[in-house]
C-alpha cells in the first residue's frame, strides 16, 4: 500500500474522531451531515462548500479563508494583454444550428440504418427472437424481405424435426 502523508488525511468537522482520506471527504460529509443534523450546526463557507465551520468561528474563517484569497486575487488581477498577432478574423461556419427546418435527430432511426449492434430490451420472448433475427439480417446486409430466407443454415431442420423424419422413415418400412 502506498505511503499516506498527513496532508492526504482530513478530519470530519462533525466528529473529530472521523479521519479519512481527502478524496473520501465529500462522500463522508453527506453521511455525517444527516447523522448530526440535529446535534451540530455548521455553516458552509461561501468560497468552498467543503469548509464546514461552527457558527462562532464562521466570521473569522470568512475573513481568513485560503479560497477567499484566491478569488480576491483573481478579481483584482489585470486582464492579460492581447498581442495583435494573436487576433484573427471572425470564422464563418457553414452550419446553422439555429435552423428549425432541419429534421430532428431520432436515435432509433439512426441505429437501424447504421452498422451498430442493438440489443432487444423490454421485449417479450417472441418479440426478442424476431428482433434478433431481423438484426442478423440487417447486419449481413441482406436485401430480402423479413421472414424469407435462402440461407442453408436457416432452412436446415432442427434436431426435433430430424427425429420426426427418422421416426416416420422407420415406421413406413
UniProtKB/TrEMBL annotation:
Bias (Basic residues) ranges: 158-173
GO molecular function, one term: zinc ion binding
The keyword Metal-binding appears for this protein: yes
Classification via InterPro entries: TRM13/UPF0224_CHHC_Znf_dom (IPR022776), UPF0224_FAM112_RNA_Proc (IPR051591), Znf_C2H2_sf (IPR036236)
Compositional bias of kind Basic and acidic residues: 79-93, 131-143
Keyword Metal-binding: yes
Pfam family, any one: zf-U11-48K
Protein name: GL15775
